[in-house]
Task: inverse folding
């Protein structure tokens, strides 16, 4: 096989292997390529909030799940996620007092 065919094959494999709701590598403008539609807040171990920047114009929230360590991108517009962030914010403010 020539180099062009190998390159095309690799690009196809990379495109097909993308997993929904997972953060992508740092070479992409934004970390989250797709967003999980539903996540049970009881199974979230940690939340990582990435603010908007020059490389990505939106705020991204990445949750690490308790049971398997899987990372999922969350929908910031979801009512459940907004409530979760409000609760986390209140918890932080109580701890700082």
Result:
């Amino acid at each position: 096989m020539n180099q062009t065919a190998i390159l095309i094959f690799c690009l196809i494999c990379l495109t097909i292997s993308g997993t929904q709701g997972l953060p992508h590598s740092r070479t992409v403008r934004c970390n989250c390529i797709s967003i999980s539609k539903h996540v049970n807040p009881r199974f979230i171990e940690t939340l990582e909030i990435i603010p908007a920047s020059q490389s990505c114009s939106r705020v991204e929230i990445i949750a690490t799940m308790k049971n398997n360590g899987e990372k999922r991108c969350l929908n910031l517009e979801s009512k459940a996620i907004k409530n979760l962030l409000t609760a986390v914010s209140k918890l932080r403010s109580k701890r700082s007092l």
